[in-house]
């Protein structure tokens, strides 16, 4: 974690954080990491990583490169790289990503699609 | 990851676009773009790279970037040197720094405006009027005694005659109602004598 924190520190300047008391109803899009501690309804589309922290509540469709969920997500998740469901998270919706990690303790309901092309290639 | 990020403050990064409604109870720093409505119970900071095109309702608002839309603040709105804004501001305190650009209306609250304007308007004409009337009384009264004596007689006939002592002062008084107080004083003084 220390390494990760150091890596994220330089980004922190441009880092977007949606605080725990914030409620966004609409669309979020961008080219940088997004940390959500609050509530977002609508749609999220990023070209970088999305972090849904323990206090975060998402009711939205998500399109990003990476998703790391520690909070609650209701909606479909599409990640071009990786989707990680951490312990104590709650996710309801379909997940589509080449790499999907579900930790022990995570609650998930929905379909998983790990990109059929890879399977065909193999 | 959570530890590395700042708590209690929300930051909208440079490349981020939020369209829709945004509400919250914490400070918000906008370096990217926000469109729609923005409601906070605390401070909104629009940094030089930030663009807000929204109806904004906050406690405090500091604009160093671009804001298009109406801003309502319960405390203050400050447009800094880099700030550019188009829209109406409603806030009890509005600070616009030299170099800032702004187009729109400002409403600092009816109570304050109502209290200040009458003071300013009343004070400006009142001061010269009083100053003019007070010294004017003496010169007016003096010539009045000499030249408009016929007036005295005309006015004195229909008017009550029981105050002959004040005749010299009274006829000169009517043209300047402001002088009434002064006249009364004179009248009062004379009976005392």
Molecular structure report:
The complex is a heterodimer of chains A (122) and B (193). In chain A, strands 1, 2, 3, 4, 5, 6, 7, 8, 9, 10, 11, 12 and 13 form a 13-stranded parallel β-sheet that branches. Chain A is 14% helix and 53% strand. The termini of chain A are far apart. Chain A has one domain. Chain A has 122 residues and is mainly beta. Chain B has 193 residues and is of the alpha/beta class. Chain B has two domains: 9-108, no CATH class; 134-192, no CATH class. Helix content of chain B is 30%, strand content 35%. Chain B has helices spanning 110-146, 149-156, 180-192; strands spanning 9-12, 17-24, 27-30, 33-40, 43-46, 51-63, 66-68, 71-79, 84-86, 89-90, 93-96, 101-103, 106-107. The N and C termini of chain B lie far apart (93 Å). The chains are: A mainly beta (122), B alpha/beta (193). β2 (23-30) of chain A pairs antiparallel with β2 of chain B.
Largest interface: A-B, 35 and 30 residues
- What assembly state would you assign to the polypeptide chains in this entry? heterodimer
What is the strand tally of chain A?
Answer: 13
Number of domains of chain B: 2
Largest sheet of chain A: 13 strands, parallel
Which spans of chain A have pLDDT < 50 for at least 5 consecutive residues?
1-14
Number of H- or I-type helical stretches of chain B: 3
Going by helix content, strand content and strand pairing, the class of chain B is alpha/beta
Percent helix range of chain A: 10-25%
Work out the helix count of chain A: 2
First-residue to last-residue Cα separation of chain B: 93 Å
**Unreliable spans of chain B:** 1-6, 119-150, 152-156, 171-189
The ordered string of helix (H) and strand (E) elements of chain B is EEEEEEEEEEEEEHHH
Cα-atom Rg of chain A, whole angstroms?
A: 14 Å
* Gross morphology of chain B: globular
Helix content bin of chain B: 25-40%
Sheet of most strands of chain B = 13 strands, parallel
Helix-strand topology string of chain A: HEEEEEEEEEEEEEH
Let me know the number of strands of chain B.
Answer: 13
Number of domains of chain A: 1
